[in-house]
Write a structure and sequence with these properties.
By secondary structure, this protein is α/β, with parallel strands linked by helices. It contains 12 helices and 12 strands. The strands form 3 sheets. It has a 7-stranded mixed sheet with strand order 1-9-8-5-4-2-3, sandwiched between helices. The chain has a 3-stranded antiparallel sheet with strand order 7-6-10, with no helix packed on it. It binds pyridoxal-5'-phosphate.
Length: 406
């Protein structure tokens, strides 16, 4: 059994994929070929936003979004510690400080009430309100500029600038509440939709929330290519123009007119061609994923020794992962071992919340700062999830799980 069966998908559309690759080999426009614009307009239309900007990865999409929002040293960007490292990594890379906010125990997404507390804690430089990076200082940021100290040599406090909401496992975060907290404090919102392309919230598609949304086409994501790729989405004309420039070394009117510092962040024509072939069947695959999730919920249901994911009213998930909670860490280990013995692969997303990763140790967070993220990290694991998982396979998985209870 496959954890994510990319071969089953390829078998369905192999001819179309090969034809699209062939077309790129024939026209030879490997960089910014016609496939890029076609893909951007098709995905923008699907999501329901004005602009889509293809780029080299989901990480570059986040980096371009933060650059477009002018994030730099001295800035605080709020996000969840229960995500892939890339979400917070790009904040630190720009010399800004990631400020973590614990998650909601049902959705695994950032808790808007705690977001408000964290912003207040940073503004008042008061860790009694909510855990904040050590002393709320940017002394811990690598390559920080000397300008971040005051005349007495004391590091200056950080300034709240933005929020990155993460749609973990494919379920959109609560952008209505995140948006109103952000608005109250005059912060921008970025949607990390790396896992949620194809999901919805109150009739609106993921990748359309916040000022800029970012997705990833890493092979294992709901819409994946055969390498690295990503995309930024926005309704804002100006942000779109800036991000188009950023992805090509900050280009101005032409390639050798450089108006800002940017990156080499383009999406390959070949990957865009592959994505166009896959996008043809994507809406159907999202429905198939939903059927697989429904079957899991029925099979594992309320009697199982594990807790199945819940989807809030008005939302649909893209089901990038089907993540369940065991009662404790030993039970998770036992369940994973039993499944492994039965030939069923599982994975843990994510075994270590970001505030406890050594890469972020200089922020000075400690165990206990974000109890819900920590509790989930010790108990969570993901079952096989892809559009082509059969009812038979799922029954088998459910049996191994319920037999583990005896
Ligand atoms: C995959 C992922 C990213 C990074 O995407 P890449 O294309 O691998 O760079 C960022 N955030 C989240 C939540 C992800 O799952």
């Amino acid at each position: 059994m496959q954890f994510i069966d990319l071969a089953a998908q390829q078998n369905r559309i192999r001819d179309k994929i090969e034809a699209n690759i062939q077309a790129v080999l024939d026209h030879g426009k490997y960089i910014m070929g016609p496939e890029i614009k076609t893909l951007e307009s098709r995905l923008a239309e699907y999501v329901g936003v004005k602009h889509a900007i293809g780029c080299a990865s989901g990480t570059d999409a986040l980096l371009m979004a933060l650059l477009a929002c002018r994030i730099g040293p001295g800035d605080a960007v709020f996000t969840t510690p229960f995500t892939f490292i890339a979400t917070a990594e790009v904040i630190s890379l720009l010399g800004a400080v990631p400020v973590f906010v614990d998650i909601d125990s049902e959705s695994f997404n950032i808790d808007p009430a705690k977001l408000d507390l964290a912003i207040q804690a940073v503004k008042n430089n008061d860790p009694m309100i909510y855990p904040i990076p050590c002393a709320n200082l940017n002394t811990n940021v690598p390559r920080r500029s000397s300008t971040s100290k005051d005349e007495n040599g004391h590091p200056l406090p950080i300034t709240p600038k933005g929020v990155i909401g993460v749609d973990i496992f494919g379920l959109p975060a609560d952008y209505e509440r995140i948006g109103s907290v952000a608005q109250e404090h005059d912060l921008f919102v970025i949607e990390d939709a790396a896992q949620s392309f194809g999901a919805q919230l109150n009739g609106t598609k993921a990748c359309s929330f916040g000022n800029i949304a970012c997705t990833s086409f890493f092979p294992a994501k709901p819409l994946g290519c055969y390498g690295d790729g990503g995309m930024c989405f926005t309704d804002d004309d100006e942000l779109s123009t800036v991000m188009e420039s950023l992805r090509v070394h900050g280009k101005g009117d032409h390639k050798y007119d450089n108006v800002r510092i940017g990156i080499n962040g383009r999406l390959d024509s070949l990957q865009a061609g592959i994505l166009l072939a896959k996008f043809d069947i994507f809406p159907e695959e999202i429905e198939l994923r939903q059927q697989v999730a429904n079957r899991y919920a029925t099979l594992l249901g309320p009697f199982s020794p594990i807790k199945v994911p819940s989807v809030p009213p008005g939302a649909t998930s893209a089901w990038a992962q089907y993540s369940v909670l065991a009662t404790d860490e030993p039970q998770r280990t036992e369940l994973q071992n039993n499944l492994k013995e039965a030939g069923i692969p599982t994975a843990i997303y994510y075994p270590q919340p970001l505030h406890l990763q050594s890469a972020f140790s200089s922020l000075g967070y400690k165990k206990g700062d974000f109890p819900i993220s920590e509790d989930c990290a010790w108990r969570i694991f993901s079952l096989p999830m892809h559009p082509y998982l059969t009812a038979e396979e799922q029954k088998n998985i459910a049996e191994v799980i319920s037999n583990s209870d005896e």
